Amino acid sequence: MTDKHKRCWGNENKLALDYHDKEWGVPVYNDKIQFEFLVLESAQAGLSWMTVLRKRENYRKAFDNFNPEKIAAYDEKKIVRLLQNSGIIRNRKKIEAAIGNALSFMKIQREYGSFCNYFWNFSGGKPITNRWKKFSEIPVTTELSDTITKDMKKRGFKFLGSTIMYAHMQGVGMVNDHLVSCFRHGEIENMS
Question: Which of 9, 23, 29, 49 is catalytic?
């Protein structure tokens, strides 16, 4: 049986296809998943998203299934163990950022009741549906990603620039950046 779906990307391998078809652009209103994406997107800085996707399961094991309370308590011994784990991206600054970001994430949860309350407030609680026809139209940053980044950096987040934030916004469905020709564009628009 042949897959007749037209995709904007994701045909390179099964991992990319599954991520495109099931996750990318789907609005996420779950703090745990939001935190997972924040850690992974910060780890991705300077690398390809496929590199991170290939290591995602290893990250889940190494980083206590992205539990911010556990990660916030990591000490130097844990950092050294993580630096020896070839299943993840072994960069001390990125690992330390994940620990610090867990603390900042939990502060936001306490202040707003949940990270999602804080995050989705920037878009009025709703996804933004774009209508791009070709990849060259899709920005890497926007005024909104700049605003969110600036606020999160004030709150202590590291390894988080506007480009990473825009990728986060795409990944967790704050923006629907599937091309209009892609079968997922309409499906995701109908979720809103």
Answer: 49
End-to-end Cα distance, the chain: 31
The pLDDT > 90 percentage for the chain reads 95
> Rounded mean pLDDT of the chain?
96
One of 19, 74, 120, 166 is an active-site residue; which one? Answer: 19
The answer to whether 96 is a known catalytic residue is no
pTM summary value = 0.95
CATH 3.40.630.30 fits 14-191, yes or no: no
> What residues does each domain of the chain span?
14-191
Of the candidates 24, 36, 41, 74, the residue annotated as catalytic is 41
Specify which residues 128 forms β-bridges with: 175
Q: Decide if 41 is catalytic.
A: yes
- CA angle in degrees (0–180, nearest 5) for 55-56-61: 100
